Amino acid sequence: MKIGFVGAGRAGCSLGKYFTTKASQADITVTGYNSIVEEEARWAAAFTDSKVWERIEDVIAASDAIILSTPDGAIKKVWDAIDKKNLTGKMICHLSGSLSSDVFSGIDAYGGYAISIHPMFAFSNKDSVYQQLNHVSFTLEGHPYAVNAWKQLLDALGNRSVAIDKTKKPKYHAAASILSNQVIAVLATGYALLEECGFSEQEARSFSASLVRDNVEHVIADGCVNALTGPIERGDVGTVQKHLRELNDTQKELYKVCGSRLLELARRKNPQTDYTALESILNEE
Questions:
Q1: Are 166 and 100 in contact (CB under 8 A)?
Q2: Closest to 90 measured CA to CA, from 51, 35, 143
Q3: C-alpha distances in angstroms, 166 versus 34, 96, 99, 159, 239?
Q4: pTM attached to this predicted model
Q5: Of 70, 110, 180, 267, which one has the greatest count of Cβ atoms within 10 A?
Q6: Contact 142/115 with Cβ under 8 angstroms?
């Protein structure tokens, strides 16, 4: 598969480099990059040993699959601006987790195939994270021809891929956001509390690293119910009350919201335990 990119941000550069390093496994060629910021396109092309294309139409002509690796808000604008007369047999792709392939409206009339390809991964930079993509999973949604082609390619690379219904994309992306970004909010709250106890910011992270890392690994290996521990799981009303007395309003609200969800898991783990008193405390205004 010959793959070209429109947009040279973190995701586009990382995927392009990953495809280049694994090219022999799946017969991939990265044809190059087009970007409204020429300097970024030149950097990406040098990074992936590919070409800079001045026009999007040149990327289309050189590629079997064209990935619009732009911000979500720009995808439709780029699609609307493309000269569509040479799309026959081409796969037009985007990397948005929340948008479906429907953003490429009218593509069937031009003989092209629309697909959304979303790696469940946080691209923190564009020059080194490609090394972490070996075990990343992808969701695929769009025309069956394109979904099948990309599934075969990702299988060859050793990446898991799952087809998803386009109507589920917003819910799927909400899940990904909670599992990635919003976990950071919970960690930041815990770290801030440790800082209030006298730890430095760096000490808060390093001191609790095993607790955080091992707990996440336990959840991944055994599931949330089996990994659950702590005062809520034990039904320790007194300890929960002490916690709540030490928290400010924002911290308390987060504790109660998370605590209520933990209580649901605790009831599944310990159906014989009466959590009525704890539920009442967590629901107090």
A1: yes
A2: 143
A3: 27, 12, 8, 21, 45
A4: 0.87
A5: 70
A6: yes
The neighbour count for residue 82, using CB atoms within 10 Å, is 21
Q: CA 192, 255, 121: angle at the middle one, nearest 5?
A: 70
Could you report the per-residue pLDDT of 108-167, keeping only the tens digit for each?
999 999 999 999 999 999 999 999 999 999 999 999 999 999 999 999 999 999 999 999
Helix (H) / strand (E) containing 163: strand 161-163
Output the six-digit token pair for 266: 């605790």
Q: Which residue has the tokens 């539920």?
A: 279
Instruction: Name the one residue in this structure whose structure tokens are 């979500």.
Output: 72
Contacts of 271 (CB under 8 A, 6+ apart): none
Q: Based on the domain organization, do 65 and 105 belong to the same domain?
A: yes
Among residues 104, 134, 164, the one where a domain terminates is: 164
Q: Are residues 150 and 200 in the same domain?
A: no
Kindly state whether residues 82 and 153 are assigned to the same domain. yes
